[in-house]
Amino acid sequence: MSDITLQKAASKAYQAEIVARMLENYPHKLTDSDVESVASLFG
Fold first, then answer.
1. Distance CA 20, CA 23 (A)
2. What's residue 25's pLDDT?
3. 1 with 13: CB under 8 angstroms?
């Protein structure tokens, strides 16, 4: 596992929060494939 800076970690956390909110607010506008693609980013 590579080390990342605190700034990079904060940026990634912010991006994950935005995506999670999008999924929560617009679940019916995304296809199953879209959801799978987004989920793979968190893995």
1. 5
2. 86
3. no
Burial 11-42 (b: 16+ CB within 10 A, else e): eeeeeeeeeeeeeeeeeeeeeeeeeeeeeeee
Domain boundaries, the chain: 7-42
* Pick from 7, 43, 42: nearest CA to 22: 42
pLDDT of residue 43: 64
Could you tell me which of 38, 36, 43, 6 has the C-alpha nearest to residue 19? 38
Q: Could you report the per-residue pLDDT of 1-43, keeping only the tens digit for each? A: 578 899 999 998 998 898 888 888 887 888 889 888 888 877 6
